Amino acid sequence: MTETYSQFVSWFRSAAPYIHVHRGKTFVVQIDDSLVYSEIFTDLVHDLALLNSLGIQLVLVYGARHSIEAWLKENDQESTYHDDVRLTDADTMELVKTAAGKLRVEIESKLSMGLGNTPMSNAELRVSSGNYVMAKPAGIIDGVDYQFTGEIRSIDVNAIRSNLDSDEIVLIPPLGYSITGEVFNLSASSLAAQMAIELKADKLIYLIDDEGLHDAEGNVISQLIQTEAEALLQQGSIEESLYLKVAIHACKNGVPRVQLIDRQASGAILQELFTLDGAGTMITASSYDVIRQADGSDIAGILELIEPMEKQGVLVERSREKLELEIGHFTLMQRDNVIIGCAALYPFSEENAAELACFVIHPEYHKQGMGEQLFAMMETIARKNGLKKLFVLTTQAEHWFLERGFSECSLDDLPVEKQDLYNYQRKSRVLTRTID
Ligand SMILES: CC(C)(COP(=O)(O)OP(=O)(O)OC[C@H]1O[C@@H](n2cnc3c(N)ncnc32)[C@H](O)[C@@H]1OP(=O)(O)O)[C@@H](O)C(=O)NCCC(=O)NCCS
């Protein structure tokens, strides 16, 4: 196998857990008009087609801000804002309608591409759009008349759901209709957040003009819990406060994850969804999962996790002293500072192999793909350490490992050192898998 080919195969395998996890999930993605009219938009459309074909339900909310601003500038007019909200007069509203219509056609035409030799070949994406959003005038606030700037009144969740269930991508313009027959201009970022809340979306993705949010030193912040995000907003230490505000609102109202991703980076959305490290900044409702190397301070948490399994005979007993000595071999999965999973790699350097041991996910978190993610991490660590083979001894999870590429082997296949320690009373099955 050539190196490029083997890199591809290992990348594809490492993406597999995420493919399982995302299937059937609903993502709301907000894009801006400047992105739609840029060269990179074709790449994004290819990525969206791929997500659709992997069974991810997509709602695409688009904004028309840049088109409106360019038009106002051309006509020597200034944008008028109050409290960061654009005031929309009748002329500007006409422009919003034109810009939104043009954008819709542009996006639909790109999503309809099916040229051979491109990722869109045979994609046959279906797109739906309609009067799903009802609005009312924002009204007169502090004596300022917002005119055609609207507020969301309701979202027709059932209609959108039924389109999503028919594998259609739902396209939402920054407009809302009123029962009096008028049209109102809506903020696309707030609309995307409300859409994600009402659809109970699994993820809300903003494609922004930056790599993500930055800390005081200018580094991209990869993860923030909602409460941390609120503290940053109050300190005023984050420039991109507009997105932070809508992200916090979404998190507070049940959206588990909001992601801010650089729209200029081709493939960033795939990187975010299908790699362990992700991309941009993730803001999570109350908790997020971390997979990390264990240290001495984790011993109590690990014992709490594994002792019930040891009592049931699922895992081999480990004393606190043994765990202290071996803590360097352990990797943890943590949510909200609680250890919910762990695994250890005991290398046999002569054989370029390792035993994967104490591989456990807390029963409350079973069947959510956690085991899969933890295993992907253990595989990555093994690969980074140049290991070629993994062994696992199991009494109750044989099929879990068989379904992830392990096969049964005999005791004689184990490194000799491990053969000597084999516990004949436990009668564990011995399984092995090569690392590419
Ligand atoms: C094995 C284990 C880590 C899987 O964790 P998990 O987070 O539930 O796994 P995932 O969510 O990634 O996978 C879920 C899938 O695996 C299946 N599965 C879960 N545990 C299984 C087991 N013990 N045997 C066979 N299949 C199992 C589930 O049915 C589900 O498949 P489905 O969606 O087709 O129904 C977990 O069951 C566990 O902690 N077991 C006890 C510890 C153990 O036996 N460790 C191995 C020896 S070190």
What structural class is derived from the secondary structure elements?
A: alpha/beta
Q: Enumerate the spans where pLDDT stays under 50 for 5 or more consecutive residues.
A: none
Task: Let me know the number of strands.
Answer: 23
How much helical structure, as a percent, in the residues? 25-40%
Write down the CATH topology of the largest domain: Carbamate kinase
Number of helical stretches of at least 4 residues: 15
What is the straight-line distance between the termini? 10 Å
Taken from the alpha-carbon principal axes, the silhouette is elongated
Largest sheet: 8 strands, mixed
Bound molecules: coenzyme A
Task: Estimate the mean pLDDT confidence.
Answer: 88
Known CATH architecture of the largest domain:
3-Layer(aba) Sandwich
Strand order of the largest sheet: 5-10-2-1-13-15-16-14
Number of domains: 2
Task: Output the CATH class name of the largest domain.
Answer: Alpha Beta
Approximately what portion of the residues adopt beta-strand conformation? 15-25%
- Rg over CA atoms: 26 Å
Which homologous superfamily in CATH is the superfamily of the largest domain?
Acetylglutamate kinase-like
